[in-house]
Design a protein that fits this description.
The protein is α/β, with parallel strands linked by helices. It has 16 helices and 21 strands. The chain is globular.
């Protein structure tokens, strides 16, 4: 039996490939950045051909570093930046223009126009998502609106649409498919039926003929050609869902939070979609073969790690990001100071683009150490706000929070987080959970691992942080935090 799995992580700024062994250990990694294209203010694009070249390069590089060949590989899984939208010629596979990246806001006016006919509630009821520039469907509609000939070809099935998972699977195998987690980010898939929805397609004015087939997250989509000839391509998940899967959050009530520039929290809610009325996204967590899909509630935070960078680069109170931990640990509390990092508005659960960042509660007593601690607490409070809404909207209480991402190197942050969510926070030994999730999905599809229980055996705890803060103190500080958030509103 071939003893290794490949996981391709095609992200917003770079592409990576990781080789995993049968014990889910990392054997080798290779990574390469790709160009960010900014044609106009608010527009963000990627060159799909460059991405494909980089993916091939890092996959070869990872195999070379591991001293392996394609003959050693049981399967390949893909995880990807979500919502990024591209078109290509259905016959030749040649990209038609650049990909429009998830961060791109060119569809802002289009969103307002669509909302005149169908409001947020209408969209949420069908696809689980609000009308927003974030998602793939409006980007696709915008592209078709720019070029009548392109729309004609799309209606004839001569042009294909996909997110990055679809593009890579097409390049590897020739198949035109997308997994359910990525399809759930388009605003075109019915969240209950897991199929493209005629009402959604009509409202977004998108032809069905250009859309890929929706498939499970763990299934053999085809065999790769080229330098990976014969390797099954057998798993695909959007990056945040891949982290949920890699963290083995297989039971309702289990959640993961990825702490990066911003942070993303996903809660497994079981096999029934829960439609949020308070700013969370209803999304597909994963689907294994012909088993029922598992759903999740998602909350996204715009600024967490970026706040630490701001303290370093703009205020100069630390020289390196890591220094914030020592500085924050030198005081016992925040000195009455709260930081709300609403640099460009607040995301979930508030969704207030008018908010702006503030520092509240300043007195002559406050030092840069108190500011550092308040910054870590700002990350933890933003996550805690999402957890509160998740607990109120779902039938499951958060039982534990599994964490990954760069900020989780901070033991102090994770203890604060456990205190504020009043639940255990657990950091795994392997924090590359996004790639691990893609590898797990691919491995399950080809029998490399037999079942979810086997995956749980490979997930290992580095450290567990249990809540230690008295409830009275937590609620008192929550009241102060909420006062600070309220003061950040109505600025823009």
């Amino acid at each position: 039996m071939n003893r290794y799995l490949l996981a391709i992580d095609q992200g917003t700024t770079s592409s990576r490939c990781i080789v995993f062994d049968a014990d889910a250990n990392i054997i080798a990694v290779d990574q390469a950045e790709h160009q960010q294209i900014f044609p106009r203010p608010g527009w963000v694009e990627h060159d799909a051909t460059e991405i494909w070249h980089q993916v091939q390069a890092v996959t070869r590089g990872a195999l070379d570093r591991a001293g392996l060949s394609r003959a050693d590989v049981s399967a390949l899984g893909i995880t990807n930046q979500r919502e990024t939208t591209l078109l290509w010629d259905a016959r030749t596979g040649e990209p038609i223009g650049n990909a429009i990246v998830w961060q791109d806001t060119r569809t802002d006016q289009l969103i307002r126009d669509i909302a005149k006919t169908h409001d947020d509630a209408w969209w949420r009821a069908r696809c689980g998502l609000p009308l927003a520039t974030y998602f793939a469907g409006p980007k696709l509609r915008w592209l078709l609106d720019q070029d009548p000939e392109l729309r004609r070809r799309a209606e004839a099935g001569e042009v294909h649409f996909g997110t990055i998972d679809t593009w890579l699977i097409r390049q590897l195998t020739g198949a035109h498919v997308t997994d359910v987690t990525n399809a759930s980010r388009t605003m075109l898939m019915n969240i209950a039926t897991l199929d493209w929805d005629d009402e959604l397609l009509a409202a977004m004015d998108v032809p069905r003929a250009m859309l890929p087939k929706i498939v499970p997250s763990s299934q053999v989509y085809g065999e790769a050609g080229g330098f990976l000839a014969g390797v099954p391509v057998a798993g695909a998940l959007g990056d945040q869902q891949a982290a949920l899967f890699g963290q083995t959050c297989f039971a309702a009530g289990e959640a993961k939070c990825t702490y990066g520039t911003g942070s993303f929290l996903l809660l497994n809610t079981g096999t029934t979609p829960i439609r949020s009325e308070r700013g969370l996204l209803t999304t597909v967590g994963y689907q294994i073969g012909d088993q029922p899909p598992v759903y999740a509630l998602e909350g996204s935070i715009a600024v967490t790690g970026a706040l630490v960078q701001w303290l370093r680069d703009n205020l100069g109170i630390i020289d390196t990001a890591a220094e914030i931990n020592e500085l924050a640990a030198s005081v016992e509390d925040n000195g009455g100071c709260y930081v709300v990092p609403a640099f460009s508005g607040l995301f979930a659960p508030h969704w207030r683009p008018d908010a702006r960042g503030i520092i509240a509660g300043l007195t002559a007593y406050v030092t840069k150490a108190h500011l550092a601690r308040a910054a870590l607490e700002a990350t933890a409070w933003q996550v805690a706000d999402i957890v509160t809404v998740m607990n109120e909207e779902s039938d499951v209480e958060l039982s534990m929070l599994k964490v990954d991402g760069g900020m989780t190197a901070s033991d102090l942050l994770l203890q604060i987080q456990a205190d504020l969510v009043d639940a255990p926070v657990i950091r795994p030994t392997v924090t590359e959970t996004t790639c691990l999730g893609a590898a797990y999905a691919a491995g399950l599809a080809v029998g490399f691992w037999p079942d979810l229980a086997a995956l749980r055996e490979h997930w290992r705890v580095d450290r567990r942080f249990d809540p230690a803060m008295p409830a009275e103190r937590r609620e008192a500080e929550r009241a102060q935090w909420r006062k600070a958030v309220a003061r950040s509103l109505d600025w823009a």
